[in-house]
Amino acid sequence: xxxxxxxxxxxxxxxxxxxxxxxxxxxxxxxxxxxxxxxxxxxxxxxxxxxxxxxxxxxxxxxxxxxxxxxxxxxxxxxxxxxxxxxxxxxxxxxxxxxxxxxxxxxxxxxxxxxxxxxxxxxxxxxxxxxxxxxxxxxxxxxxx
Length: 145
Hints:
The protein is an all-alpha fold. Helix content is 68%, strand content 0%. The chain has helices at 4-10, 17-20, 23-51, 76-105, 107-124, 134-144. The longest helix has 30 residues, at 76-105. The radius of gyration is 23 Å and the shape is elongated.
């Protein structure tokens, strides 16, 4: 026969909202939400940018360095090839490079580093359009991805 203490362990009341949403769990949830939001947005907008027609460069001086009106003008097959290469390289990084880096620096420091790196990547994304050599342009974009 089970004692009252053993039964109490099995039939505990569920935690309250206040117990679940502590300061740390709220920060973790917010950080993951922001990460998922901007990562998904980038992944959805990048193929549009890669497919958008190329802007013909002219000799007029650039008025605004951060105003881009053209894309890469790539066909969907080429975009698929770039994303396939990106997926393979991401898998290799995730399974071969990240574990030793995380062991050496810690997961939190890797997260902080990526948090700093993401805005720089987003800022650099449109600049390969300015490269006039198409293969070099696509290599630069693959490096950014």
